Amino acid sequence: MGLKDLLNAGSDGTHGDATSMVSMDARPNEPWVTTKLDFLVNWGRANSLWPMPFGTACCAIEFMASAASNYDLARFGMERMAFSPRQSDVLICAGRVPFKLAPVLRRIWQQMPQPKWAISMGACASTGGMFDTYAVVQGIDTIIPIDVYVPGCPPRPEGLIYGIMMLQKKVMNERMNGTSREEMEPDPKSKLYIPSSRIDELSEPFGNSVHQTRSAP
Amino acid sequence: MRAEKFTVISAGHGGGDTPATPRNVPHKGGDANPTAAALQARFGSTIARVDVINGETTVIVDRDKVHDIVQWLHDEPTQSYEYLSDVTAVEHRDAQRPIEIVWHLRSIKFRRFIRLKALIVKGSALSICSIWDIYKGADWLERECYDMFGIQFTGHPDLRRILMWEQFKEGHPLRKDFPLRGRFSRSQQLENALAANPEARYSMEELSIVDAYEELPLDMRRRLLGGEKTGE
After folding, report:
1. Candidates 3.20.20.70, 3.30.450.20, 3.40.50.12280, 3.40.50.300; correct CATH number of A50-202?
2. What CA–CA distances, in Å, run from A33 to A17, A22, A42?
3. Cis-peptide into B77, omega within 30 deg
4. Does a structural domain hold residue B193?
5. Is residue B195 assigned to a domain?
6. How does pLDDT run across B45-73, given as a tens digit for each residue?
7. Among A127, A208, A212, which would you mutate to test the B interface (most chain B Cβ atoms within 10 Å of its Cβ)?
8. Are strands B152-154 and B127-129 parallel, antiparallel or unpaired?
9. What is the value of ipTM here, to two decimals?
10. Domain containing B155: what range?
């Protein structure tokens, strides 16, 4: 349902989708609508998400392809790339994140104003991928809360766009008075969003670094 | 007239102005770089062995004489190795084999390449003389070698980690006894990484931040107080 449909529904006197809004003619030729505030705000947010690209590897190349004219993220209201976290809504982490970069990513997430969302693009950002080593974070959901995971190595632009559309659906279902938009706070002691026992579990099925075999006697 | 401005670079072997790419190079053996014979004549028994593999000459030298040998290769006009392309190390899976430290030297003037190796027996002190005073480009190469293998380069002006962060406590990742996933559990690694202040990685000159100063390692604070400028 676009804004045009909303306005048309008001101006020509016909009733639109009765479940989401009611339209009436107050005076002829002056269109107005009544709707739910949740719907209107979410509709505005979902269709003007400003991405903050955090590209660290080959996924960033696919992200660039998604933003370029062939796939054209502008169709989703995302043509405005924000290279400053202060003016962005969606953090798109495209690529592997080493531990050296972990505090940087955390800082960037904290610098983004509410409301904010995060997409983890590709196998490495979501799970560490093939880089099951001493240097790479095994899934950035251990650093920041993630809304949508896009699988692939790297995902094709269609995949990323599908993830973005899923995020738009998620945004549309948010409630102003709900708890979904409250910022998750990390544990004050460990600074982690996920309990450390869960993080060690996540590195299964290969076993965490304590229980692995060594490469040489 | 203009041709006089160009210096003709003569080839190392084969003669002529346009050296041909060597073809049908045997895997082992073949003509050694003439520098190897010159080194043996000049340094005698400190040259342990000369290998020629795939047409590349490897000279295994005494670990205490590396500095003298590199200095001579650099200064001697008949050798003229102006360019240091790499400093690295090799550790073998076989625990009996020594750790090799490798220098790749190149003579642009004579178009020659030579590889020097020094052997450090396991168990002895992992230290070797720095050649930073001969090639300034050895600075970061030796830092990387220290970071990955833990080899101390004596005489290096600023030997600290370059790839891993300075607060990295798990050891030297390219050593064979280093577990692939590191020595700590994933959650410990994350906690350590997130506890770091991102700004504390930079020097005063780069960010001039005072509040991160207290979190820097002690030796880094000492260097900064001494007025060190990065990259010099």
Report:
1. 3.40.50.12280
2. 12, 7, 16
3. no
4. no
5. no
6. 889 899 999 889 999 999 999 999 999 99
7. A208
8. parallel
9. 0.71
10. 1-161
| Token pair belonging to A23 | 């339209």
Write the CATH number for B117: 3.30.460.80
CB A63 within 8 A of CB A159: no
Question: Do residues A129 and A161 touch, judged by C-beta distance below 8 A?
Answer: no
Q: Which residue of B has its CA nearest to A108?
A: B198
Q: How many domains does chain B have?
A: 1
Which tokens hold the place of A11? Answer: 């101006």
Structure tokens at B175: 């050593």
| Residue B30: pLDDT over 60 | yes
**Region class of A207: left (phi > 0), else alpha (psi between -120 and 50), else beta:** left
Token pair recorded at residue A144: 């920041």
CB A197 within 8 A of CB B187: yes
Per-residue tokens: B91: 């550790």
**Interface test with chain B among A109, A201, A209, by most B beta carbons within 10 Å:** A209
The pTM of this model reads 0.75
pLDDT in tens, A95-130: 999 998 998 899 899 899 888 899 999 999 988 888
